[in-house]
């Protein structure tokens, strides 16, 4: 039987009636039309679906809606304030950190979560934190450069 | 057949999907008779609709429109899958229209709107589409100047035009003004009068300039809609029942098990079973319920354990279309091998690998008044249109395929499986349907880069020169089959084999395998001759572009100094699709793992269009090539892929990033050719050389065996 869940997404309160086990990724995309968060593997192996839940980078494809009941979710759509891009978004443009760009929302959300706890993350910390976000275009040098730029390196 | 068609045929391998709809068989049989069915299906899969016309007579209005705000819409059937075509074609149009790139809006890959420039394959966008777009835009610019002159009542020669502004004797008029005051659209309906003057490379202001990706802001804000992101009013989500193994036939199923679930529509059509539901979660539950009731008859299938034996045993001489081209034949190879004192006889094994684009296959299909519209990720919009026509017996304007900028291709999206499946489900559900393949489906039911067995026999004369070269490629294909080195007696061929897995194109296709085998064999011959691998290659290369990149890479890398220091280094070079690459690698091997990797690569593709994207493509190709060189290989047994997951099929990740130095050789004096593929071909053999230096063991397989 469907249950009702309440969550805050990008500062807005939402109430969703659905199965408790349904992945957050599906709810974001199909119920809230927030398609910026991507499916890449469905098993937490690639990072394309990364969102921030209560400040922590979280793989929304293996997170059930029940797990985020009452919690605060941030997605790529909520990152810029008005027309002003977040510094991580700007760094991704500046460093051409995208080819097809499909992995980019997940990369950016993961980088944002990292830089909130480690604003001046070292190169080593960046590689360690970003290593779980796959880019099949293998644009890793530019991706690393973008996160380094955002970290002020 | 025009030049672009010919190139596609040369460079592509593709197998059709392995299922048929029962209803389609009935339609074909009713309309054409059973005997013609197969022929029709095959023709349709390669259909080129009638819109493809000689470019010379193409009305300029088919290629571009000018709007009242002065924005120019340019159209092409090419797709953007991350290789940079959107930015590049936008630059090309901006260059010839003398406009900043912000004033160009590029519409790509809509079969209803766009002139057919062919599919996106074989690195053809740069040498074939860009010149077409430039030529049309240059002709349009001339036409607009004439129109402005007439409006301003002066001679065309008295009008200066730049950046959207016409000027004559102190008076100015903007492009937007011209659209309001003159019949621009009508004027562009006529084809160009003659060959328009395109800007010389030395005068380029937009091309050749580092340019960031067009549409980057939509990507970093999550606003860009990939095919899997399309949502239509009333749309449902689809899932398809997949067989448990290759070749398995459905013998019984209880459709009611899925049908009884709330909101679910189950579709069965021949071997095809699928369902739709208001959410993908519900559709997934319905498929699980159906899977539990399905019974299958399975068939034997070769395993990856005995893959290379299987290829060898099923090989057929002759090689078909692929085997006949590319390879060279000269002199008497057998006699030369027989009489030589020093020779090698080496076999190379190339595993199946997969493209694994981050966005798996996806399509949204909508039927409206008998007309079918599909948004899907494919490199071949017009071929997908043909597949849909074939599958549903549609004619005329009945099908429209739109390819939104897609999440990766790498040669892996030449087919329209998801489009056909989504359309079948949408037809049954009576609603638009979004079908998004899972990662496991993509790893199992898409296609693979061909595996290959390559046998090289070669011999040296008493001066240490190659005197015989016998090169046989089993299954993996003919790209870069012909050795670029000077050899008096040679034989090069492709043998066709029974491929256990469905196989198709891949970034640079077979040239990676052929370059790997050839370059490792060159290292073996150099060792036999007691000569440095660089000197050995230089001794067998004519003056020219390949030699130039080899010299450029080795100089930048410091090959001779590192060699003298006894470091673990390797090198390789090659050419494919008209561009040239050489790579040098230094690496350590510690506990069976490559460490401290340094790659220095030189690459030359004529006049560079976008240095920013070129660097990104070359670096991406090197790292992607490292994946296939070190880890990637499909494992299969009992008709199942055993590593259909990013946990077990390990693609490169950030920590694999080597230190990279690039030499991007710009040749403004030479035509520009595509750069998305060839930079991938040299890294594996160069790494093999470094691994040999480090371990003393010669690995002749991709991925390399490091133990």
From TrEMBL, chain A:
Keywords of this entry: 2Fe-2S, Iron, Iron-sulfur, Metal-binding, Oxidoreductase
GO MF annotation: an example: 2 iron, 2 sulfur cluster binding
SUPFAM superfamilies per record: 2Fe-2S ferredoxin-like, CO dehydrogenase ISP C-domain like
Positions of the 2Fe-2S ferredoxin-type domain: 3-79
Pfam families: Fer2 (PF00111), Fer2_2 (PF01799)
InterPro entries listed in its UniProt record: 2Fe-2S-bd (IPR002888), 2Fe-2S-bd_dom_sf (IPR036884), 2Fe-2S_ferredoxin-like_sf (IPR036010), 2Fe-2S_ferredoxin-type (IPR001041), 2Fe2S_fd_BS (IPR006058), Beta-grasp_dom_sf (IPR012675), Diverse_Oxidoreductases (IPR051452)
Keyword Methyltransferase applies: no
Name of the protein described by the UniProt record: (2Fe-2S)-binding protein
UniProtKB/TrEMBL annotation, chain B:
Highest taxon of the lineage: Bacteria
Signal sequence segment: none
Membrane-spanning segments: none
Location of the Aldehyde oxidase/xanthine dehydrogenase a/b hammerhead domain: 221-300
Pfam families linked: MoCoBD_1, MoCoBD_2
UniProt xrefs under SMART domains: Ald_Xan_dh_C
Gene Ontology MF term list: oxidoreductase activity
Protein name (Swiss-Prot/TrEMBL): Molybdopterin-dependent oxidoreductase
Species of the source: Aeoliella straminimaris
